[in-house]
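User: Second chain of the day. Same drill as before.
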Amino acid sequence: MELEKYILAIITTEPGKVSGGGAPVFISQTKEEQDKIATILARATEGVIHDLENGVYLLVKH
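Assistant: Same format as last time:
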């Protein structure tokens, strides 16, 4: 059995909406900082950014 998709990181401006788990959580102060962190991590990991539209981004490996 092999995992094909998995969460690499969570990037949020609202830490209260994120709780424990296996992925690292990056907390940003602004939406602009959140976008920058997500973009840099996506480039470095070849992941895809998914906006949950609630202040939380998921970085997923497909």
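Residues 6-15+23-61 form one domain.

User: Great, on to the next one.
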